[in-house]
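*Target chain*
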Amino acid sequence: MATMLQNVSRETTARLNAFEALVRKWNPTINLISKGSLQDIRARHICDSAQLFDLAPGGARHWVDLGSGGGFPGVVIAILMAEANPDGRVTLVESDQRKSAFLQTALRVTSVNGVVISKRIEELAPMEADVLSARALGDLGKLLPFAARHLKPGGTALFPKGKTWKAEIDSVKSQWNFEHRVDMNDLEPDAAILSIQGVSRV
């Protein structure tokens, strides 16, 4: 896996710093991340989100992040994409109105290309995503229907998972066909990031 955030430009670093400051400013009001993780926001949230960008197929034009919440990974992805793939765009889906307002502010403050959709995921028309991500949104039984609906043919879903990732894969094999690759999380022991393609119901 690429070394996270070590080779980004000064402009990207400035954008990430501005985003981090914004999270710290808004967090007491709308609880974007847990208080316990606020002290280590760079590793726990920003670098953890950057891992997904490192694992994504190159040249993705449309990245959709479901349940974007505090902007992890969606806003971090948008910031990294602004440097690596300026023609790409990121769609952040978040049903909570206050968090949607935060996400819109974050995109504006960092001056990156993204759109916030303030709707429930179940209400969305197919998004035709090259890459689909969701962090801490649910288990694979919940996520695979979203992947089947919103990925374009040949697209990739990236789902960070905790130490129960093997059990999650086993639990859905009878209902779903899919190909997957497992990359261990560099920042969390026993956790993994699943890269999933070719999702269809059995």
